[in-house]
Amino acid sequence: MRTLTIWLLALAWTSCLKVQSAVYLRDTAHFIQAIQQIENSGLEVSPLSIVRSLRRAAGHDDAFTQTFLRTTQDDSDTHILTANHSQYVKAWSVEFLRFFDKAIHNFVTDSREERGVVLTPDGTTIALAPLLQGIEAGLKARSEGHPPQGLHSLTLARTLGLSFLHAYNTSTVDRLGPDGCWDNVTAPMVFTLMGPPSLATDALINGGMDGAILGAHLSDDSEAVPKLSKLLESYYHFQLGEAGLDEAPRLVSAMRRENYRKLVPPSLLEETVLEFLADRKPLAHLREAVKEGVLDFVLRYLDCPAMIPRCQWGAKIPKGIPVRLSPPLQFLYIHHTEIPSRPCLNFQQCSKNMRAMQRFHQEDRGWQDIGYSFVIGSDGYMYEGRGWGRVGSHTRNHNALGYGVAFVGNYSASLPTRHSLDLVRHRLAKCGVTSRFLQANYTVWGHRQATDTTCPGDALYSQISTWEHFGDTKSSTATHN
Known about the structure:
This protein is an alpha/beta fold.
Protein backbone atom coordinates (compact mmCIF):
# COMPACT_ATOMS: atom_id res chain seq x y z
CA MET A 1 0.00 0.00 0.00
CA ARG A 2 2.82 2.39 0.87
CA THR A 3 4.49 1.61 -2.45
CA LEU A 4 1.25 2.32 -4.33
CA THR A 5 0.80 5.62 -2.47
CA ILE A 6 4.34 6.75 -3.30
CA TRP A 7 3.80 5.80 -6.96
CA LEU A 8 0.56 7.80 -7.13
CA LEU A 9 2.22 10.83 -5.52
CA ALA A 10 5.08 10.59 -8.00
CA LEU A 11 2.65 10.33 -10.88
CA ALA A 12 0.68 13.35 -9.62
CA TRP A 13 3.90 15.35 -9.18
CA THR A 14 5.08 14.40 -12.69
CA SER A 15 1.72 15.44 -14.14
CA CYS A 16 1.88 18.72 -12.24
CA LEU A 17 5.34 19.43 -13.62
CA LYS A 18 4.12 18.71 -17.13
CA VAL A 19 1.17 21.08 -16.75
CA GLN A 20 3.29 23.82 -15.24
CA SER A 21 5.97 23.38 -17.90
CA ALA A 22 3.36 23.65 -20.64
CA VAL A 23 1.70 26.68 -19.08
CA TYR A 24 4.89 28.62 -18.48
CA LEU A 25 6.36 28.46 -21.98
CA ARG A 26 5.91 31.89 -23.56
CA ASP A 27 4.31 31.07 -26.89
CA THR A 28 0.83 31.22 -28.38
CA ALA A 29 0.45 27.44 -28.34
CA HIS A 30 0.67 27.29 -24.54
CA PHE A 31 -1.44 30.40 -24.06
CA ILE A 32 -4.15 28.83 -26.24
CA GLN A 33 -3.90 25.61 -24.20
CA ALA A 34 -4.52 27.64 -21.06
CA ILE A 35 -7.58 29.24 -22.69
CA GLN A 36 -8.84 25.77 -23.61
CA GLN A 37 -8.60 24.75 -19.95
CA ILE A 38 -11.08 27.49 -19.14
CA GLU A 39 -13.34 26.62 -22.07
CA ASN A 40 -13.35 22.91 -21.17
CA SER A 41 -13.90 23.45 -17.45
CA GLY A 42 -17.67 23.16 -17.68
CA LEU A 43 -18.21 26.74 -16.51
CA GLU A 44 -20.08 27.64 -19.73
CA VAL A 45 -18.46 31.04 -20.12
CA SER A 46 -18.54 33.11 -23.29
CA PRO A 47 -15.45 34.40 -25.15
CA LEU A 48 -16.35 37.90 -23.90
CA SER A 49 -16.40 36.69 -20.29
CA ILE A 50 -13.01 35.05 -20.74
CA VAL A 51 -11.25 38.13 -22.14
CA ARG A 52 -12.84 40.31 -19.47
CA SER A 53 -11.65 37.87 -16.81
CA LEU A 54 -8.16 37.92 -18.27
CA ARG A 55 -8.17 41.70 -18.14
CA ARG A 56 -9.20 41.59 -14.50
CA ALA A 57 -6.59 38.94 -13.65
CA ALA A 58 -3.87 41.10 -15.21
CA GLY A 59 -5.06 44.27 -13.45
CA HIS A 60 -5.82 46.17 -16.66
CA ASP A 61 -8.82 48.09 -15.38
CA ASP A 62 -7.58 51.69 -15.50
CA ALA A 63 -9.85 54.68 -16.11
CA PHE A 64 -8.98 54.97 -19.81
CA THR A 65 -9.79 51.31 -20.47
CA GLN A 66 -13.04 51.58 -18.50
CA THR A 67 -14.11 54.45 -20.76
CA PHE A 68 -14.56 51.95 -23.59
CA LEU A 69 -14.80 48.54 -21.93
CA ARG A 70 -16.30 49.38 -18.52
CA THR A 71 -15.02 48.12 -15.19
CA THR A 72 -14.67 44.43 -14.42
CA GLN A 73 -15.05 44.83 -10.66
CA ASP A 74 -18.85 44.59 -10.51
CA ASP A 75 -19.24 41.92 -13.17
CA SER A 76 -19.78 38.42 -11.77
CA ASP A 77 -18.66 36.83 -15.07
CA THR A 78 -15.13 38.14 -14.55
CA HIS A 79 -14.64 36.16 -11.32
CA ILE A 80 -13.81 32.92 -13.10
CA LEU A 81 -10.07 33.53 -12.71
CA THR A 82 -10.21 34.79 -9.13
CA ALA A 83 -8.43 32.39 -6.77
CA ASN A 84 -10.51 33.30 -3.71
CA HIS A 85 -13.84 32.85 -5.45
CA SER A 86 -15.15 29.67 -3.81
CA GLN A 87 -16.97 28.41 -6.92
CA TYR A 88 -13.71 28.16 -8.87
CA VAL A 89 -11.05 27.32 -6.27
CA LYS A 90 -11.05 23.65 -7.30
CA ALA A 91 -10.78 24.51 -10.99
CA TRP A 92 -7.57 26.55 -10.96
CA SER A 93 -4.25 26.25 -9.20
CA VAL A 94 -2.55 29.37 -7.92
CA GLU A 95 0.25 28.79 -10.43
CA PHE A 96 -2.28 28.60 -13.26
CA LEU A 97 -3.74 31.96 -12.25
CA ARG A 98 -0.31 33.54 -11.90
CA PHE A 99 0.49 32.44 -15.44
CA PHE A 100 -2.11 34.78 -16.89
CA ASP A 101 -0.81 37.74 -14.92
CA LYS A 102 2.75 37.04 -16.09
CA ALA A 103 1.68 36.36 -19.66
CA ILE A 104 -0.41 39.51 -20.06
CA HIS A 105 1.24 42.20 -17.89
CA ASN A 106 3.67 44.01 -20.23
CA PHE A 107 6.81 45.78 -19.01
CA VAL A 108 10.56 45.92 -19.70
CA THR A 109 13.14 45.16 -17.03
CA ASP A 110 16.44 46.97 -16.50
CA SER A 111 18.16 44.12 -18.38
CA ARG A 112 15.89 44.80 -21.41
CA GLU A 113 13.81 41.67 -20.92
CA GLU A 114 10.29 42.34 -22.18
CA ARG A 115 7.56 40.49 -20.33
CA GLY A 116 3.91 40.03 -21.14
CA VAL A 117 4.81 38.81 -24.63
CA VAL A 118 4.60 35.47 -26.44
CA LEU A 119 6.23 33.95 -29.51
CA THR A 120 3.96 33.10 -32.46
CA PRO A 121 4.57 30.20 -34.90
CA ASP A 122 5.49 32.65 -37.69
CA GLY A 123 8.51 33.88 -35.69
CA THR A 124 7.08 37.23 -34.60
CA THR A 125 6.40 38.25 -31.02
CA ILE A 126 3.20 39.84 -29.71
CA ALA A 127 2.13 41.55 -26.50
CA LEU A 128 -1.08 39.93 -25.28
CA ALA A 129 -2.65 42.95 -23.53
CA PRO A 130 -3.51 45.02 -26.64
CA LEU A 131 -4.51 41.88 -28.52
CA LEU A 132 -7.02 40.87 -25.85
CA GLN A 133 -8.39 44.40 -25.43
CA GLY A 134 -9.04 44.59 -29.16
CA ILE A 135 -10.85 41.27 -29.06
CA GLU A 136 -12.88 42.45 -26.06
CA ALA A 137 -13.84 45.69 -27.81
CA GLY A 138 -15.05 43.73 -30.84
CA LEU A 139 -17.04 41.20 -28.80
CA LYS A 140 -18.58 43.93 -26.64
CA ALA A 141 -19.66 45.88 -29.72
CA ARG A 142 -21.20 42.76 -31.22
CA SER A 143 -23.15 41.96 -28.05
CA GLU A 144 -24.49 45.52 -27.85
CA GLY A 145 -25.24 45.90 -31.55
CA HIS A 146 -23.07 48.88 -32.45
CA PRO A 147 -19.63 49.53 -34.00
CA PRO A 148 -16.67 48.95 -31.65
CA GLN A 149 -15.87 51.95 -29.48
CA GLY A 150 -12.28 52.84 -28.79
CA LEU A 151 -10.93 49.90 -30.81
CA HIS A 152 -7.98 51.79 -32.28
CA SER A 153 -7.33 53.76 -29.10
CA LEU A 154 -7.15 50.63 -26.96
CA THR A 155 -5.03 48.58 -29.33
CA LEU A 156 -2.42 50.97 -30.70
CA ALA A 157 -3.16 54.72 -30.53
CA ARG A 158 -2.65 54.87 -26.76
CA THR A 159 0.68 53.01 -27.05
CA LEU A 160 1.88 55.29 -29.84
CA GLY A 161 0.62 58.43 -28.11
CA LEU A 162 2.48 57.67 -24.89
CA SER A 163 5.65 56.81 -26.77
CA PHE A 164 5.51 59.91 -28.98
CA LEU A 165 4.83 62.07 -25.92
CA HIS A 166 7.72 60.54 -23.99
CA ALA A 167 10.08 61.00 -26.94
CA TYR A 168 8.91 64.61 -27.33
CA ASN A 169 9.36 65.46 -23.64
CA THR A 170 12.74 63.78 -23.28
CA SER A 171 14.14 64.46 -26.78
CA THR A 172 14.53 60.70 -27.19
CA VAL A 173 15.14 59.42 -30.70
CA ASP A 174 13.81 55.92 -29.94
CA ARG A 175 10.05 56.43 -30.26
CA LEU A 176 9.31 53.05 -31.86
CA GLY A 177 10.64 49.54 -31.27
CA PRO A 178 12.85 47.73 -30.97
CA ASP A 179 12.34 44.07 -31.80
CA GLY A 180 14.03 41.39 -29.76
CA CYS A 181 14.97 37.73 -29.66
CA TRP A 182 14.01 34.69 -27.59
CA ASP A 183 16.43 32.60 -25.60
CA ASN A 184 15.07 29.48 -27.32
CA VAL A 185 12.47 29.49 -30.12
CA THR A 186 11.37 25.91 -29.39
CA ALA A 187 10.96 26.49 -25.64
CA PRO A 188 10.74 30.29 -25.25
CA MET A 189 11.06 31.73 -21.78
CA VAL A 190 12.98 35.04 -22.01
CA PHE A 191 12.56 37.73 -24.67
CA THR A 192 15.38 40.29 -24.77
CA LEU A 193 15.17 43.54 -26.71
CA MET A 194 17.93 44.35 -29.19
CA GLY A 195 18.28 47.96 -28.08
CA PRO A 196 16.99 50.65 -25.72
CA PRO A 197 13.21 50.28 -25.34
CA SER A 198 10.67 52.85 -26.41
CA LEU A 199 7.16 52.78 -24.98
CA ALA A 200 6.03 51.18 -28.26
CA THR A 201 8.08 48.03 -28.70
CA ASP A 202 7.62 45.83 -31.76
CA ALA A 203 5.72 43.29 -29.64
CA LEU A 204 3.25 45.95 -28.44
CA ILE A 205 2.79 47.14 -32.01
CA ASN A 206 2.29 43.61 -33.36
CA GLY A 207 -0.19 42.78 -30.61
CA GLY A 208 -1.97 46.09 -31.15
CA MET A 209 -2.35 45.53 -34.88
CA ASP A 210 -3.64 42.00 -34.27
CA GLY A 211 -6.10 43.26 -31.65
CA ALA A 212 -7.50 45.86 -34.05
CA ILE A 213 -7.78 43.33 -36.89
CA LEU A 214 -9.48 40.62 -34.83
CA GLY A 215 -11.63 43.11 -32.92
CA ALA A 216 -12.99 44.57 -36.16
CA HIS A 217 -13.63 41.06 -37.47
CA LEU A 218 -15.50 39.97 -34.32
CA SER A 219 -17.72 43.07 -34.32
CA ASP A 220 -19.22 41.87 -37.61
CA ASP A 221 -22.23 39.69 -36.77
CA SER A 222 -22.34 37.96 -40.17
CA GLU A 223 -20.64 34.88 -38.70
CA ALA A 224 -21.06 32.97 -35.45
CA VAL A 225 -18.67 33.88 -32.64
CA PRO A 226 -15.97 31.20 -32.44
CA LYS A 227 -14.41 29.93 -29.25
CA LEU A 228 -11.56 32.18 -28.20
CA SER A 229 -9.07 29.33 -28.55
CA LYS A 230 -10.30 28.55 -32.08
CA LEU A 231 -10.03 32.20 -33.09
CA LEU A 232 -6.43 32.45 -31.88
CA GLU A 233 -5.48 29.07 -33.32
CA SER A 234 -6.83 29.84 -36.79
CA TYR A 235 -5.11 33.25 -36.80
CA TYR A 236 -1.69 32.26 -35.46
CA HIS A 237 -1.38 28.55 -36.29
CA PHE A 238 -2.71 28.25 -39.85
CA GLN A 239 -0.55 25.88 -41.91
CA LEU A 240 0.40 27.30 -45.31
CA GLY A 241 0.22 25.10 -48.41
CA GLU A 242 2.50 25.09 -51.46
CA ALA A 243 0.99 28.37 -52.67
CA GLY A 244 2.04 30.14 -49.47
CA LEU A 245 0.01 33.23 -48.66
CA ASP A 246 -1.42 33.37 -52.18
CA GLU A 247 -4.16 30.93 -51.18
CA ALA A 248 -4.26 31.52 -47.41
CA PRO A 249 -7.26 32.99 -45.57
CA ARG A 250 -7.21 36.74 -45.06
CA LEU A 251 -7.12 36.49 -41.27
CA VAL A 252 -3.71 35.01 -40.56
CA SER A 253 -0.90 36.64 -38.61
CA ALA A 254 1.51 36.69 -41.56
CA MET A 255 -0.90 39.15 -43.25
CA ARG A 256 -0.84 41.48 -40.24
CA ARG A 257 0.69 44.49 -41.99
CA GLU A 258 -1.46 44.25 -45.11
CA ASN A 259 -4.66 43.87 -43.07
CA TYR A 260 -3.85 46.72 -40.71
CA ARG A 261 -3.08 49.06 -43.60
CA LYS A 262 -6.51 48.34 -45.09
CA LEU A 263 -8.26 48.75 -41.74
CA VAL A 264 -6.59 51.92 -40.43
CA PRO A 265 -5.50 54.66 -42.85
CA PRO A 266 -2.57 56.76 -41.55
CA SER A 267 -4.83 59.83 -41.26
CA LEU A 268 -7.21 57.93 -38.96
CA LEU A 269 -4.34 56.68 -36.82
CA GLU A 270 -2.90 60.19 -36.48
CA GLU A 271 -6.33 61.56 -35.56
CA THR A 272 -6.85 58.83 -32.93
CA VAL A 273 -3.44 59.44 -31.35
CA LEU A 274 -4.19 63.18 -31.10
CA GLU A 275 -7.58 62.41 -29.52
CA PHE A 276 -5.82 60.33 -26.87
CA LEU A 277 -3.45 63.23 -26.17
CA ALA A 278 -6.23 65.85 -26.18
CA ASP A 279 -6.33 66.26 -22.38
CA ARG A 280 -2.64 67.19 -22.51
CA LYS A 281 -3.52 70.14 -24.77
CA PRO A 282 -0.93 69.28 -27.42
CA LEU A 283 0.76 72.34 -28.84
CA ALA A 284 1.80 72.72 -32.45
CA HIS A 285 5.21 71.15 -31.82
CA LEU A 286 3.67 68.07 -30.23
CA ARG A 287 1.18 67.79 -33.08
CA GLU A 288 4.09 67.86 -35.50
CA ALA A 289 5.85 65.20 -33.43
CA VAL A 290 2.76 62.98 -33.68
CA LYS A 291 2.60 63.50 -37.42
CA GLU A 292 6.26 62.58 -37.80
CA GLY A 293 5.80 59.61 -35.48
CA VAL A 294 2.89 58.22 -37.50
CA LEU A 295 4.89 58.63 -40.71
CA ASP A 296 7.73 56.71 -39.07
CA PHE A 297 5.28 54.01 -37.97
CA VAL A 298 3.86 53.68 -41.49
CA LEU A 299 7.34 53.31 -42.96
CA ARG A 300 8.63 50.80 -40.44
CA TYR A 301 5.55 48.67 -39.88
CA LEU A 302 3.42 49.04 -43.02
CA ASP A 303 5.65 50.00 -45.96
CA CYS A 304 8.68 47.90 -45.02
CA PRO A 305 8.26 44.11 -45.06
CA ALA A 306 8.33 42.26 -41.76
CA MET A 307 11.87 41.04 -41.13
CA ILE A 308 12.98 38.06 -39.06
CA PRO A 309 16.21 39.25 -37.34
CA ARG A 310 19.41 37.25 -37.37
CA CYS A 311 19.25 36.28 -33.72
CA GLN A 312 15.76 34.88 -34.23
CA TRP A 313 16.72 32.47 -37.04
CA GLY A 314 19.85 31.40 -35.19
CA ALA A 315 22.67 33.13 -37.09
CA LYS A 316 26.26 32.56 -36.10
CA ILE A 317 28.61 35.49 -35.47
CA PRO A 318 30.30 36.75 -38.69
CA LYS A 319 33.94 35.80 -39.15
CA GLY A 320 36.26 38.78 -39.44
CA ILE A 321 35.42 42.48 -39.50
CA PRO A 322 32.38 43.41 -41.65
CA VAL A 323 32.86 46.08 -44.32
CA ARG A 324 30.33 48.89 -44.19
CA LEU A 325 28.32 49.95 -47.22
CA SER A 326 27.95 53.58 -48.34
CA PRO A 327 24.25 54.01 -49.15
CA PRO A 328 22.18 54.95 -50.98
CA LEU A 329 23.16 52.22 -53.46
CA GLN A 330 22.14 51.76 -57.07
CA PHE A 331 21.30 48.06 -57.44
CA LEU A 332 19.05 45.25 -56.25
CA TYR A 333 20.55 41.95 -57.43
CA ILE A 334 17.96 39.16 -57.60
CA HIS A 335 18.99 35.58 -56.83
CA HIS A 336 17.41 32.21 -56.19
CA THR A 337 19.05 29.94 -53.66
CA GLU A 338 18.74 26.88 -55.98
CA ILE A 339 19.75 24.86 -52.92
CA PRO A 340 17.52 24.68 -50.91
CA SER A 341 15.50 23.93 -54.03
CA ARG A 342 12.04 23.99 -52.46
CA PRO A 343 10.30 27.06 -51.03
CA CYS A 344 10.12 27.29 -47.24
CA LEU A 345 6.59 27.73 -45.89
CA ASN A 346 7.06 28.31 -42.17
CA PHE A 347 9.41 29.95 -39.72
CA GLN A 348 10.98 26.67 -38.59
CA GLN A 349 11.86 25.53 -42.12
CA CYS A 350 12.99 28.96 -43.33
CA SER A 351 15.22 29.36 -40.25
CA LYS A 352 16.71 25.92 -40.84
CA ASN A 353 17.44 26.92 -44.45
CA MET A 354 19.07 30.16 -43.32
CA ARG A 355 21.37 28.31 -40.93
CA ALA A 356 22.28 25.78 -43.64
CA MET A 357 23.12 28.54 -46.13
CA GLN A 358 25.19 30.43 -43.59
CA ARG A 359 27.07 27.25 -42.69
CA PHE A 360 27.76 26.53 -46.39
CA HIS A 361 28.89 30.09 -47.10
CA GLN A 362 31.15 30.29 -44.06
CA GLU A 363 32.61 26.77 -44.01
CA ASP A 364 32.64 25.71 -47.68
CA ARG A 365 33.01 29.07 -49.41
CA GLY A 366 35.17 30.65 -46.71
CA TRP A 367 33.07 33.81 -46.53
CA GLN A 368 32.55 35.91 -43.42
CA ASP A 369 28.82 35.30 -43.26
CA ILE A 370 25.78 34.28 -45.24
CA GLY A 371 26.30 36.01 -48.58
CA TYR A 372 22.89 37.56 -49.19
CA SER A 373 21.65 40.86 -47.84
CA PHE A 374 18.10 39.53 -47.50
CA VAL A 375 16.36 36.21 -48.09
CA ILE A 376 12.66 35.77 -48.89
CA GLY A 377 10.67 32.76 -47.75
CA SER A 378 7.22 31.77 -48.94
CA ASP A 379 5.94 32.18 -45.38
CA GLY A 380 5.29 35.91 -45.81
CA TYR A 381 8.52 37.09 -44.21
CA MET A 382 11.96 38.34 -45.13
CA TYR A 383 15.00 37.05 -43.28
CA GLU A 384 17.88 39.32 -42.39
CA GLY A 385 21.20 38.32 -43.91
CA ARG A 386 23.86 41.01 -43.98
CA GLY A 387 21.15 43.67 -44.02
CA TRP A 388 21.24 47.24 -45.28
CA GLY A 389 24.56 48.17 -43.70
CA ARG A 390 27.17 45.53 -44.57
CA VAL A 391 28.82 44.51 -47.84
CA GLY A 392 27.62 41.06 -48.88
CA SER A 393 29.08 38.20 -50.91
CA HIS A 394 26.32 37.73 -53.43
CA THR A 395 27.34 39.21 -56.78
CA ARG A 396 31.05 38.97 -57.64
CA ASN A 397 32.70 42.36 -58.29
CA HIS A 398 29.40 44.13 -57.56
CA ASN A 399 28.88 43.58 -53.85
CA ALA A 400 29.55 47.20 -52.86
CA LEU A 401 27.14 48.52 -55.50
CA GLY A 402 23.91 46.95 -54.32
CA TYR A 403 21.98 44.47 -52.19
CA GLY A 404 21.69 40.75 -52.90
CA VAL A 405 18.12 39.52 -52.46
CA ALA A 406 17.52 35.76 -52.70
CA PHE A 407 14.27 33.80 -53.02
CA VAL A 408 14.41 30.42 -51.29
CA GLY A 409 13.94 27.75 -53.96
CA ASN A 410 14.87 26.86 -57.54
CA TYR A 411 13.06 29.07 -60.04
CA SER A 412 14.36 27.77 -63.35
CA ALA A 413 10.91 26.53 -64.37
CA SER A 414 8.51 28.00 -61.80
CA LEU A 415 7.95 31.26 -59.94
CA PRO A 416 7.96 32.25 -56.29
CA THR A 417 4.57 33.01 -54.80
CA ARG A 418 2.93 36.25 -55.88
CA HIS A 419 3.11 37.53 -52.32
CA SER A 420 6.88 36.86 -52.15
CA LEU A 421 7.45 38.68 -55.42
CA ASP A 422 5.44 41.66 -54.20
CA LEU A 423 7.47 41.79 -50.98
CA VAL A 424 10.58 42.54 -53.03
CA ARG A 425 9.15 44.48 -55.95
CA HIS A 426 6.97 46.84 -53.93
CA ARG A 427 7.71 46.60 -50.20
CA LEU A 428 11.47 46.07 -49.89
CA ALA A 429 12.26 48.46 -52.72
CA LYS A 430 10.01 51.21 -51.35
CA CYS A 431 11.42 50.67 -47.87
CA GLY A 432 14.97 50.97 -49.18
CA VAL A 433 14.27 54.16 -51.13
CA THR A 434 12.34 55.89 -48.33
CA SER A 435 14.99 54.90 -45.77
CA ARG A 436 17.71 56.17 -48.14
CA PHE A 437 19.44 52.84 -48.52
CA LEU A 438 18.49 52.65 -52.21
CA GLN A 439 18.66 55.40 -54.79
CA ALA A 440 15.29 56.59 -56.03
CA ASN A 441 16.24 55.56 -59.58
CA TYR A 442 17.57 52.16 -58.46
CA THR A 443 18.14 49.34 -60.94
CA VAL A 444 17.03 45.71 -60.65
CA TRP A 445 19.36 43.09 -62.12
CA GLY A 446 19.27 39.35 -62.20
CA HIS A 447 22.46 37.75 -60.87
CA ARG A 448 23.26 36.46 -64.39
CA GLN A 449 23.63 40.00 -65.69
CA ALA A 450 26.70 40.53 -63.54
CA THR A 451 28.49 37.19 -63.87
CA ASP A 452 28.42 33.86 -65.69
CA THR A 453 25.56 32.01 -64.00
CA THR A 454 22.00 30.84 -64.66
CA CYS A 455 20.85 32.45 -61.40
CA PRO A 456 18.10 33.50 -60.64
CA GLY A 457 16.62 30.82 -62.91
CA ASP A 458 14.95 31.35 -66.28
CA ALA A 459 11.41 31.72 -64.95
CA LEU A 460 12.30 34.23 -62.25
CA TYR A 461 14.62 36.17 -64.55
CA SER A 462 11.84 36.44 -67.13
CA GLN A 463 9.53 37.75 -64.42
CA ILE A 464 11.84 40.45 -63.04
CA SER A 465 12.60 41.63 -66.58
CA THR A 466 9.04 43.03 -66.61
CA TRP A 467 9.60 45.11 -63.45
CA GLU A 468 9.68 48.88 -63.88
CA HIS A 469 13.22 49.27 -62.49
CA PHE A 470 14.74 46.38 -64.43
CA GLY A 471 17.91 47.45 -66.32
CA ASP A 472 19.88 45.97 -69.20
CA THR A 473 23.09 48.01 -69.08
CA LYS A 474 26.34 46.85 -67.50
CA SER A 475 27.62 48.56 -64.37
CA SER A 476 31.15 49.40 -63.39
CA THR A 477 32.97 46.86 -61.21
CA ALA A 478 33.53 47.30 -57.50
CA THR A 479 36.53 46.56 -55.35
CA HIS A 480 34.68 44.35 -52.83
CA ASN A 481 34.06 40.79 -54.08
